[in-house]
Amino acid sequence: MLAHAQKLPRLVTVGGALTECVYALGAEAQLVGTDTTSLYPLAAQSTPKVGYMRTLSAEGLLALKPDAVIATTEAGPPVVLDQLRSAGVKVELIDSDHSWAEVQRKLQAVGRGAGREAQARALQATLDADWARVQNQVARFKGRKPRVLFILSHSATVQVAGEKTAAHAMLQLVGAQNVMTGFNGYRPMTAEAMAAAAPDLVLTTTQGIDAQGGLAMFWSRPELALTPAFKTKALVHLDALELLGFGPRLPATVRSLHQKLVLKA
């Protein structure tokens, strides 16, 4: 049994959702390193860290002697990935388009990398069925879509999410309306934009609340006082990886957020 375990590929995952897939497939014994976004499940926080996904080091990665590095296309720099390939490490990069297909690609890539393709197919079938149920649940709702503002506040520069972001995709999936459209990516939050957007509710990350010093400090920003959401302090926050990571928890996350954002709006 031990000899077989030693023959299984040694994995490094770069991206919290990919690390979640490793644990979901029961392949955590093969995990020799993860990046700093790999925080779930709790055991992932104790794995050797290879740094932030965009600033990887070939030396640090190669020291872990991985057989495969599985990452999203956000990982880099490219020269480091080339060095890994030159050293004989299999590197697989997964495109992020904030869709259910992205979750499928991540799970399949981890299944291939870990030598657990059959387990990946079985888990995929279970998740696909759950995803279909969640989509039907969201589609059945015929009421008014709540106007939601997503705020990213992990640093001093507070930003709002436009289109082509994970946050925008999540709001669409749960049946809510993103009040920030007409631009792609993130922009700084301004008083004028807040007054014009008039969100019913604010969605943010738990880490963002913590970074701002708690709920009272979060709401103390003068821009937010101009919104309908401010009057009732209508806010939902969720762990950043669960909310924006597009991993195997996505069906459960969409189900929960649909309940919190749409059905209770």
Give a quick summary of the entry.
With 265 residues, the protein is α/β, with parallel strands linked by helices. It has helices at 2-7, 16-24, 58-62, 78-86, 100-114, 117-140, 166-174, 191-197, 206-211, 215-219, 228-232, 240-244, 250-263, and strands at 11-14, 31-34, 68-72, 90-94, 147-152, 159-161, 177-178, 186-188, 201-205, 235-238. Helix content is 45%, strand content 15%.
Give a verbal description of the structure.
With 265 residues, this protein is an alpha/beta fold. It is built from 13 helices and 10 strands. It has helices at residues 2-7, 16-24, 58-62, 78-86, 100-114, 117-140, 166-174, 191-197, 206-211, 215-219, 228-232, 240-244, 250-263; strands at 11-14, 31-34, 68-72, 90-94, 147-152, 159-161, 177-178, 186-188, 201-205, 235-238. Strands 5, 6, 7, 8, 9 and 10 form a 6-stranded mixed beta sheet that branches. A 4-stranded parallel beta sheet has the order 2-1-3-4, sandwiched between helices. Helix 5 (100-114) packs antiparallel against helix 6 (117-140) and helix 6 (117-140) packs parallel to helix 13 (250-263). The radius of gyration is 20 Å and the shape is globular. It starts with a helix and ends with a helix.
Low-confidence stretches: 1-5
What is the string of helix and strand elements?
HEHEHEHEHHEEHEEHEHHHEHH
| Structural class computed from helices and strand pairing | alpha/beta
Q: What kind of oligomer do you see? A: single chain
Mean pLDDT: 94
What characterizes the major β-sheet? 6 strands, mixed
Tell how many strands the DSSP assignment holds.
10
Gyration radius (Cα, Å) is 20 Å
Q: What is the overall silhouette?
A: globular
Separate helix tally:
13
What proportion strand?
Answer: 15-25%
**Distance between the ends:** 53 Å
Percent helix:
40-55%
